[in-house]
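Page 47, continued from p. 46.
Same chain as before, 103 aa.
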Amino acid sequence: MAGPRPSFALAFVAYTALRLLLFLVPLGVIFALSGNILVSGVLAAVIGFALSWILLDRQRGAVALLLRTRAENRRVVSDETAEDEVADEVGGQNDSAAASPRP
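Result:
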């Protein structure tokens, strides 16, 4: 039996919150030590990026998988809709031709 279906919104919010945390904690620590907001911001961005790349691999993969699944599901629906529209057009042309034959 498969587990519960993961929610895209929950996975996205969790990943985003963790990324923000990995930026804000170094920002606060570096700013407290240096007092320069520009240097603190740049260093915190570099540190946050490196830490999130290393520590959030599983969360990033989960969000990417959910995005890919969501895109594939939308693509399938749009393909089916397009096929139905083409079939309706072809069927409508044949019906009209059969209903009023040319002399």
